[in-house]
Amino acid sequence: MLGAIIIILSFVVDRERALFDYLWMYMFLISITIGSLMLVSLEYLVGATWSTPFRRVSEFLAACTPVLIILALPLLYFSHDLYHWMNADVMEADELLKGKQPYLNLKFFLVRIGFCLLVWLIFYLLFIRNSEKQDETKDSNLTRKNITLSVIFTPLFVITMTITAVDWMMSLEPHWYSTIFGVYYFSGTIVAALAAATIITVLLRESGYFPSKITNQHYYSLGTMMFGFNIFWAYIAFSQFLLIWYADLPEETYWMIQRLSGGWAYVSFALLLLHFIIPFLVLLPRNAKTNPKLLKVMAIWMLCAHALDLYWLIMPSYGKEGPVFGWTELGFPLAISGIFILIFKLKADRKNLIPVGDPKLEAGLDFHL
Q: In this structure, how many other beta carbons lie within 10 angstroms of the beta carbon of residue 168?
C-alpha cells in the first residue's frame, strides 16, 4: 500500500521521472516473473530431478504473469512521453529514424508487446494447469506434455525477451543499437529468477515448510546455477562493450560514453563490482553453494545488482548528467515486493508447496552430491 501511494504521488510531482521509474519497475517484474517461468520450462526440458522439490516456488513467482498485462497499460497509455520516436515530427525530421520506421511505429509496437504478453500468459496457464492437475491425478503423461511445451517455449522465451528488451529499453535511445542486447537482458533475468527462488526456498526451509529430506546439499545446484548464469551475464556484458569499443561507430559509442561519464561512471563501476566481482569471489568456493544462510544473502545481493543493472540501462535516458534517486524511486521496489508477496501467499494458501504428484519428486528429495 505504501509503495502504491508513493507511486501515485511521484506521478503527481514529476510524471516523466515517474514513467522512467515505472518502466524500471516493470522490467524488473518481467525479469523475475518470466525468468521463473523459464526455470520451470528448463527443468522439464533437461529432465532435472534436483530442482523438482523447489519447482513450485518458481511456478508461484511466475503467477505474476497476468499482472504484467495489467501493469503494461499505463506504460502503453503514456508511451509517447517515454519514446520520442512515436512523435511523427521527430521521425520525419530524422533520416536515420526514417529508415527504422517500418519497425519503430506505434501499431507494430503494440502488436509486438501484445504478442509477448499473450505467449507468456498461454504458456504459464498450460504449464501450471498440468503441474497442479498432476498433484491430484499423479498422471506421468502430464510431465510429458510439459516437456513438449518446454521444447516450444524455450525458443519463444528467447524471442519474446529479445523483443521486450529492444522495445521497452533499447528504443528509449532509438539511434543506438546492440545486436546482443536481448541476450544481455535475458541472461540477467535468469540470474534474478534464480536469486528469487533461492531466497524463498531457504526461507521456507528455515520455517519448516519443506520436507526434512531437503538438506544443505540440495542448495548446491541452485548456487551453482546462480553463479554460472551470473558469469554468463558478465561475459555478454563484456562482449557488448568490446563490440562497441572496437567498431567505434558514433551511433553506438555515444550510449556507452554517456554511461562512462559524469555521475554514471560511478554506477558503471559499482555494477562491475556488485554484479560480477563480489558474487564471483563469494560464490566460487564449493562450500559457499551449500551454505543456505550465505546463499540467501547473496541471492538478495544479486536481486539488488540486477535492479541496479536495469537502472543503469534505463535511467540515463532521463538523467543525462548522472543518476537520480530519491523518495520517488523508493515506491517502486516497495510495490514490486508487495505484488510478489501477495500473489505468492495467495498461491501458497491454496496449492501444495511441492509438486506431490510429480514422478521425479522422490528422486529430487533423495538428491545427493
A: 24
Per DSSP, 169 falls in state: I
For residue 99, report the phi and psi dihedrals to the nearest 5 degrees: -70, -20
Burial 135-156 (b: 16+ CB within 10 A, else e): beeeeeebbebbeebbeebeeb
pTM of the model: 0.94
Residue 240 in 3-state DSSP?
A: helix
The Cα–Cα gap between 32 and 294 comes to 21
- CA–CA dist 124, 153 (Å, integer): 10
> Backbone phi, then psi, for 299, in 5-degree steps?
-65, -40
What is the rounded radius of gyration, in angstroms, for the C-alpha atoms of the chain? 21
| Helix or strand run (H / E) with residue 164 | helix 141-164
C-alpha cell at 61: 513467482
Separation CA 274–CA 286 (nearest Å): 20
- The per-residue pLDDT string of the chain (369 residues; one tens digit each, 9 = 90 and over) reads 666 788 788 878 888 889 999 999 999 999 999 999 999 999 999 998 889 999 999 999 999 999 999 999 999 999 888 998 888 787 777 878 888 888 999 999 999 999 999 999 999 999 999 999 999 999 999 999 999 999 999 999 999 999 999 999 999 999 898 989 999 999 999 999 999 999 999 999 988 888 878 888 788 989 999 999 999 999 999 999 998 998 888 888 999 999 998 899 999 999 999 999 999 999 999 999 989 999 999 999 999 999 999 999 999 999 877 888 877 778 788 888 888 889 999 998 898 999 999 999 888 888 776
Residue with cell 499423479: 138
* Cell numbers linked to 159: 524471442
User: Do 283 and 227 touch, CB atoms closer than 8 A?
Assistant: yes
What letter represents residue 26's amino acid? Y
For cell 529508415, the residue is 99
- Chain centroid, CA 365 distance in Å: 28
- C-alpha to C-alpha distance for 180 and 242, rounded to whole angstroms: 12
**Domains in the chain: boundaries:** 2-365
